[in-house]
Design brief:
One of its GO terms (biological process) is proteolysis. Keywords: Hydrolase, Protease, Serine protease, Signal. One of its GO terms (molecular function) is serine-type endopeptidase activity. The chain is of the alpha+beta class. It folds into 5 domains: 98 residues, Alpha-Beta Plaits, CATH 3.30.70.80; 306 residues, Peptidase S8/S53 domain (Rossmann fold); 140 residues, 3-Layer(bba) Sandwich (Glucose Oxidase, domain 1), CATH 3.50.30; 132 residues, Immunoglobulin-like, CATH 2.60.40.2310; 160 residues, no CATH class. The protein is built from 14 helices and 45 strands. Strands 34, 36, 37, 38, 42, 43, 44 and 45 form an 8-stranded mixed beta sheet that branches. The longest helix has 19 residues. The N terminus is likely disordered. Bound molecules: 2-acetamido-2-deoxy-beta-D-glucopyranose (3 copies). The site of one 2-acetamido-2-deoxy-beta-D-glucopyranose has 16 residues, from strand 7, helix 5, strand 11 and helix 10.
């Protein structure tokens, strides 16, 4: 990561170092509040100092929020100042654009089973034992839920003896605030309408609160739950901090204000399940998160639901050094509609766009095969050419690397098919969006295999769908959820941290929306960890710092296998494993650190020391061992990571300075581990390997503890950053417009293409508005698509005739530089691309004091250069560089 510090001449009397502008460029998080900035001051600068300085620099602004623990403020700037000029003001340490977050689109389905503890996944995590045998309920612990609010009237949040919940003293929801109001969408300051009532209208926050501490065991009033269930800590109290309007977007400025308020209200734990994007740990939320943890709070954040995007995808909110990035595991039971085909009777999940069960007429199924005889992904309508599917149900593979369910549905429109079944890959039942009015259902992977086998023997076999729902054990229960995002982070640190049940989770929903629902997502897993913190604190009768609890949970988590795999799932997917709260509480051993980052071959940490502490009352002997896990190969011959990494059985080896250690009560022993990289993995394919180092106590029934390690074979400087498979970066052609559809960058559907070097652009002068924009102007744009992180994503402009560096392209009110996470694989069904529109300006330096400057008409060379990971950032040696050629630009 690059920190540029400049001596500014703006401070008249003293020389003061100026701040750093941060940029978030991934197109998902590309959504920023126009003119909105979060400013962090130097530690010795007060709010008053800062206002004086902003005024002295003639910044006209409105304060959106002022913070205290985070020494800074969020402002909307009305004058012509941008992030660069704000950072140049003395006393400013960091400037971030205000990012807009969305509530994750949780996947709906329905669940049922028998035992409420099983319904809630507690038999997988030891929480059932803590409830039944230890009578732990989280009593006395306060959990802040920063989300869409809580429907505090819900009977599942009733205080003991009451039949309905309430808000205030003696209620389960004791504290709260609505920072935003119903109409807030995250972008517009004027939509804010805060008040004291944190009632939930979106639903997400109520669901999350139910997972933490809802109690639907003995509800006598309507609506009754479809199945009794119980949250992890059914006697915690809540602070409900509402940061989402009814439609579910929020600004990072509001999230920071809510985090501070939760702290001031005395919350012990906060959990955040907001999707982020950049993959680096320097967002303002992560910065504040670290400060709050240092003051005793625990933070659990969702790892993200981009599991179908492949590696390098974890969300950034959980990336602080001590916060927990939480992965999801699937619960065991699901309630679904069923279908019968030959001997196969299995569940299916109807697409949300279709929204109803598939009709009951028995019909033949036609699996659609590609030229290799494999099930086709159905992404091209031509796969149906020459096949009679009239009135039949087609079966295709639900691989998400080329298209989504919308496209699959659209592709059968003209075929006469009666509907489409989609085989979930790699396993489980996907939740599909789908195409309106096209009957569509997701089925388990194995169900798809069985259908194909039956079809090959008896193609006339018909399928019948059930009208009612039934209970199914769903394949993959207890394994990491396919949707859960893979790490590592941009510094090759081991993330996510650990997992919790998050797939197929029944919980509370606002009464106005039916009272209960089943959702899936890492958003459902992070509150599970928040509730687990409460049980831990209650059991220990103390409130250890969040990183202490994280360590106990990581050390004792259950190392898990991927569904049907013999090997353990990668630590880049499951973190340390599925949380076992019982063991985290009972263990008398800890291992530090709680993750080992071996980095890449170039920076390989061959020798690593771990500390094993015996916190028990007796001397204990431990045996040390190594449990290897899957290696993930994402680059067999491509530049953008595979959406489903190839799993390789290729292991590192570990040598221990001693394999048996005897540790007296209360004492710590250091053990040196010597690692050797896996043998088979091909360095040029950058496999991410991982495993666990385990210390097993010799006492019968002693709880083993472990620490995950992750590493990458190969030179991280050579990991492709830009997606060359899509011929990106490039300069897209086509009409100018306010928004530039990403598909244009990909040579999209209407013959729109990239422009070639030598092309002439005409740009309306962005500063003197002598001429207004018209249709004959061509706004140049640069399309980028990052397959992995870069500490510094730059677009550089050079004078084409003498090669002089003119500056960094300036677009969207910021210079084209700064750290960036990768693009997701698809966005709305097409490859996700970030497009920088260029208005003819550049900034001279990657620094705070640089002001945008309009170039004169002329011929310029455009170069995209992304800094290699873990490098110092020296240009050009440390950059992946693409010369896009020279273009003529006329400013009119
Ligand atoms: C803050 O500290 C810097 C560097 O130590 C110093 O130059 C500056 O004057 C201080 N500012 C205030 C407001 O005290
Ligand atoms: C807790 O997790 C839920 C689920 O994602 C999330 O919506 C909520 O914002 C989190 N709470 C906090 C305090 O961040
Ligand atoms: C680019 O360099 C050439 C040769 O030095 C010079 O004549 C020209 O004015 C420069 N163009 C611009 C736009 O500065």
């Amino acid at each position: 990561m690059k920190f540029t510090t400049i001596l500014s001449t703006l401070a008249a009397a003293t020389l003061v170092s100026a701040g750093v502008v941060h940029d978030f460029q991934s197109s998902v998080s590309n959504r920023v509040v126009p003119g909105g900035y979060i400013i962090e001051y130097e530690p010795n600068v007060t709010h008053t100092d800062s206002h004086n300085r902003l005024k002295a620099h003639e910044v006209e602004y409105k304060v959106r929020n002022e913070y205290n623990i985070f020494n800074g403020a969020a402002i909307t700037v009305k004058s012509n100042h941008d992030g660069q000029s704000l950072a140049s003001i003395p006393g400013v340490k960091n400037v971030w654009p205000i990012a807009v977050y969305s509530l994750p689109k949780s996947e709906k389905s329905k669940t049922k089973g028998t035992d409420p503890e099983v319904i809630s996944g507690h038999q997988l995590t030891g929480v059932d034992v803590l409830h039944k045998s230890y009578k732990l309920t989280g009593k006395g612990i306060k959990i802040g839920v920063i989300d869409s609010g809580i429907d505090y009237k819900h009977p599942a949040f009733a205080a003991k003896g009451a039949t309905a919940g309430c808000f205030g003293k003696n209620c389960r929801v004791t504290h709260g605030w609505d920072f935003v109001g119903d109409d807030y969408t995250g972008f517009d300051f004027d939509e804010l309408n805060p008040d004291a009532d944190p009632m939930d209208c979106a639903g997400h926050g109520t669901h999350v609160a139910g997972i933490i501490g809802g109690n639907a065991l003995n509800i006598q009033v309507s609506p009754k739950p479809p199945q009794p269930f119980v949250g992890v800590a059914p006697e915690v109290t809540f602070g409900a901090y509402r940061v989402f309007g009814c439609d579910g977007s929020t600004g990072s400025d509001v999230v920071i204000a809510a985090m501070e308020r939760a702290f001031k209200d005395g919350m012990d734990v906060i959990n955040m399940s907001i999707e982020g994007g950049s993959g680096y740990k320097l967002t303002p939320e992560a910065v504040l998160g670290e400060k709050l943890i240092a003051r005793g709070m625990a933070i659990a954040a969702a790892a993200g639901d981009n599991g179908d995007g492949g590696v390098w995808m974890v969300s950034d909110i959980g990336l602080g050094d001590s916060s927990s990035s939480v992965a999801s595991f699937d619960a065991t039971y699901g309630r679904y509609h069923g279908f019968k085909y030959g001997a196969v009777s299995r569940p299916y999940s109807s697409s949300t766009a279709y929204g109803q069960p598939i009709d009951l007429t028995p019909r033949a199924i036609v699996p659609i095969f590609d030229e290799n005889g494999d099930l086709s992904d159905g992404c091209d309508s031509t796969v149906y050419d020459g096949i009679d599917v009239t009135n039949k149900i087609v079966l295709v593979l639900g691989d998400s690397s080329r298209c989504d369910a919308y496209a699959r549905g659209e592709n059968i429109l003209d075929t006469g098919a009666a509907g489409i079944l989609v085989q979930t890959t790699p396993y489980g039942i996907a939740s599909l969006n789908g195409y309106p009015d096209v009957p569509m259902g997701a089925i388990e992977f194995q169900a798809g295999e069985d259908i194909i086998a039956t079809y090959k023997k008896a193609p006339q076999t018909t399928v019948s769908f059930s009208k009612t729902e039934g209970d199914f054990y769903v394949e993959g229960g207890g394994s990491p959820s396919p949707f859960s995002s893979f790490g590592l982070d941009g510094d090759l640190r081991s993330k996510p941290d650990l997992g919790a049940p998050g797939g197929n989770i029944l919980s509370t929903y606002p009464l106005a929306k039916g009272g209960y629902t089943v959702l899936s997502g890492t958003s459902m897993a992070s509150p599970y960890i928040a509730g687990s913190h409460a049980l831990y604190m209650e059991a220990k009768k103390s409130k250890p710092h969040g990183d202490v609890i994280r360590k106990a949970m990581k050390n004792t988590a259950t190392i898990s296998k991927s569904y049907k795999s013999k090997a353990f799932a990668s630590a880049a997917k499951q973190g340390s494993g599925l949380v076992n709260v019982l063991n985290a509480i009972l263990t008398t051993t800890s291992i530090s650190p709680d993750h080992i980052d071996l980095l890449d071959t170039t920076h390989f940490k061959k020798s690593v020391k771990i500390q094993i502490k015996n916190t028990g009352k007796h001397t204990q002997t431990y045996t040390l061992s190594h449990t290897p896990a899957d290696a993930l190969n994402s680059y067999p011959d491509n530049t953008f990571p595979l959406s489903t990494p190839i799993v390789e059985t290729d292991y590192a080896t570990v040598k221990f300075s001693s394999t048996k250690v005897k540790i007296a009560a209360g004492k710590t022993v250091t053990v040196t581990l010597t690692f050797t990289e896996p043998k088979k993995g091909v360095s040029s394919q950058f496999p991410i390997y991982s495993g666990f180092v385990v210390a097993t106590p010799s006492t019968k029934g002693g709880i083993p503890v472990h620490v995950p390690y992750t590493g990458m074979k190969g030179d991280v400087a050579k990991v492709p950053i830009m997606d060359r498979d899509e011929n990106i970066p490039n300069i897209p052609g086509g009409n100018t417009g306010d928004s530039f559809p990403a598909m244009l960058a990909l040579g999209g559907p209407d013959g729109v293409s990239r422009v070639s070097p030598g092309f002439s652009f005409r740009i309306a002068n962005p500063i003197s508005s002598k001429k207004s924009k018209d249709d004959s102007d061509y706004t140049p744009a640069v399309a980028i698509r990052l397959g992995s992180h870069t500490p510094d994503m730059t677009i550089r402009v050079f004078n084409a005739s003498n090669g002089k560096f003119e500056g960094f392209l300036y677009g969207d009110n910021r210079g084209a530089f700064g750290m960036s996470g990768r693009n997701p694989t698809l966005f709305d069904g097409i490859p996700d691309v970030t497009v920088w529109l260029w208005n003819g300006q550049v900034v001279k330096a990657e620094s705070a004091s640089a002001k945008p400057k309009l170039l004169s008409s002329g011929t310029y060379t455009i170069v995209v250069a992304a800094q290699k990971k873990l490098s110092k950032g020296v240009y050009p040696a440390d950059f992946e560089i693409y010369d896009l050629g020279s273009y003529h630009m006329t400013i009119v």
